Amino acid sequence: MFALYQFISNFTERLGLTTRYLGLFLVINTALVVLLRYVFNYSPIALQEIMTYLHTSLFMLGAAYTLKHDGHVRVDVFYQHMSAAKKCWVNILGTVFLLFPTCLFVLIICIPYVSSSWAIGEHSIESSGLPWLFLLKSLLLVQPVLLMIQGLAEILRNVLMLKGDPRIKQDTDTTGEGV
Description:
- This protein is an all-alpha fold.
- The protein has helices at residues 2-39, 45-68, 84-119, 133-162, 166-172.
């Protein structure tokens, strides 16, 4: 169980650390678009669309990394006062009954949308736009899959914490609380 948790966790960590460079490219691209538009009065559509692709990719690929590092918004009025064991149970139940169904719903409703985009090789409506819109839309399927994979790692981590596995305390306890 620990090996699977560690494998998924390492995968998500590497993906997240790689994804962060999209933010750097996004800033550089945005600065370039502004410079070209306002200094040289030149506004290439493809460069503007790259901004959308980078922004979308950053958020869709970075969601699992954010989940791994507990960075999603949480209303923790009650959660913050719970014992470590109760927090583990809330995390397990929240993943099983909230995260997984939501991701499955998104996945199911997006499959026809993405497959039709692939079927026609969908591209930008602008003549000088990017020809890969079907790839961008594919992130609608990639994100829920990545979230469910990381959700599985969260379940494994919390089960191992409940069992008192010392490797989990050392490996993932970033709050300093311990279990």
